[in-house]
Design brief:
This protein is an all-alpha fold and 457 residues long. Helices cover 78% and strands 0% of the residues.
Length: 457
């Protein structure tokens, strides 16, 4: 096939974009935190569950990436979408009468979700990039990332606005009455509607992955050892080879290390964003619109990031992303009513910059035969960071709550435990900018004293 082929005429690129949009545009995201709380879980349990989610990805990330390079990326993606169907279906229909059952169902959900994320991580990007390399021009990857970001932004806008609307019982009642149906809806009923909608998306995601094509010549198969055990041995061998390559490639190592810091901190804040919105007095009916505003950054940031990546030194992107992150997190800590949304948007824009820069540089430097494995190492580092931060934050919440609880209930006998959770959340938020700043300074010192001199001039 001619190398001047448009990247968007390549079937794998088309299906890659469809998969990314369907897999990630989940209707429950605008009410993610409060959805867990509405099912009867506490903020501390929520943090623990997300730490379990990250830990699952950490344990499954590297084996899944190596297996993708051995048995095929398509198989891993099909497994990921099928697992998504199961994990979303579980919490869509779990009864709310048994609090212990709810926690364990959500625990299984987080484990399955982590397995799905690990299976998809690396395999999706590798399958798309290698199709572009085989049938088009790999220099067009920046264009693919930019268009992907736009479609994901559109998907997020639809999911965020629709998900928040589906969650609102009064709005759903009004909509039913408009169409001539007299139905009384409660929050316990409508909180499942975003889950049902996400379940439908998961089925379409399955169809997208089933239609993908394997790029056979990029799979590191072993004709001399065709059995299951030899393939597993080969997967581990490829894992060690890819890991050693990362540590021997200072530039890629630096990109992954800084990327994991940005991703871990900002993703934790995004996970807790609906609780933050409540604390700055934004009505829940606006959460979907806010999510759409965040998604619209996907129309703006990737274009800017592509110009920086293609025309400037990598350090330029690093400093821009760091400045946005520290300024956004610091000003979010003030919890300004309503106007606190602006620093949140600044923080979330840094996530878009980070995602673009890391994908751009890592794919550019990595060989096809180990691309999925290297990208899985990137995913491993991201989720290791997220898991450690989630565990640390859960412990912080627990410690602060235990310290404040006796005095709080002594002085506020009429207040419920939810008010205490809000106070603990607000007082603990300064942990995020402080942790980021310490981590960033530490990585800068590591780079200056241990990595910089090893990068070829």
């Amino acid at each position: 096939m001619a190398k001047n082929t448009s990247p968007f005429s390549i079937p794998n690129i088309q299906r890659y974009i469809a998969f990314k949009v369907l897999f990630n545009s989940r209707f429950y995201y605008p009410i993610f935190t409060i959805l867990f709380l509405d099912f009867g879980l506490t903020v501390a349990q929520f943090a623990i569950l997300n730490a379990v989610w990250a830990a699952t990805i950490v344990m499954a990330e590297i084996p899944s990436g190596a297996l993708a390079d051995i048995i095929g990326r398509k198989r891993l993606l099909v497994f990921a979408t099928l697992t998504m169907v199961v994990e979303v279906g579980m919490i869509s229909f779990v009864p709310t009468s048994n609090s212990s059952l709810i926690f364990y169902v959500f625990l299984i959900n987080r484990i399955l979700s982590g397995l799905a994320e690990a299976a998809a991580s690396g395999a999706d990007e590798a399958l798309a990039y290698d199709a572009l390399k085989d049938r088009g021009n790999p220099d067009d990857w920046g264009r693919v990332l930019e268009v992907l970001a736009r479609f994901q932004a559109l998907g997020f806008i639809i999911a965020m606005s629709t998900g928040a609307a589906l969650y609102d019982p009064r709005l759903m009642e009004g909509l039913c009455q408009f169409f001539g149906f007299s139905i009384s809806l409660t929050q316990e009923t409508t909180m499942r509607f975003p889950l049902y909608a996400t379940l439908i998306l998961s089925l379409f995601a399955c169809l997208a992955t089933l239609g993908m094509e394997e790029i056979a010549q990029t799979i590191a198969t072993s004709e001399d050892a065709p059995g299951r055990i030899p393939r597993i041995k080969q997967a581990f061998s490829l894992t060690f080879t890819a890991g050693a390559w990362i540590f021997k490639t200072p530039f890629v190592l630096s990109v992954i290390l800084f990327g994991m810091l940005f991703d871990g901190i900002i993703r934790m804040v995004i996970t807790l964003s609906s609780q933050y919105y409540r604390m700055i007095q934004l009505p829940e009916a606006l959460f979907g619109i806010i999510g759409s505003m965040v998604a619209m950054l996907g129309f703006i940031v990737p274009r800017i990031a592509r110009k920086i990546a293609e025309q400037k030194a990598p350090a330029q992107g690093l400093w821009i992303t760091a400045a946005l992150t520290i300024s956004g997190l610091t000003t979010m800590s003030f919890f300004w009513p309503w106007t606190g949304l602006l620093p949140a948007l600044v923080t979330f824009s840094a996530m878009y910059f980070n995602g673009f820069f890391v994908s751009f540089y890592v794919n550019r430097e990595t060989a096809s035969q180990q691309r999925a494995t290297v990208l899985s190492f990137k995913g491993l580092s991201y989720n290791l960071s997220y898991g450690i931060l989630g565990t640390g934050y859960a412990l912080l919440l627990k410690t602060k709550k235990q310290a404040l609880e006796p005095e709080f209930f002594l002085e506020n006998r009429d207040m419920g435990p939810a008010m205490l959770d809000n106070i603990v959340f607000k007082e603990s938020f300064t942990w995020f900018p402080g942790t980021f700043l310490m981590g960033f300074v530490f990585l800068c010192l590591v780079y200056l004293f241990f990595i910089k001199n090893k990068i070829p001039k």
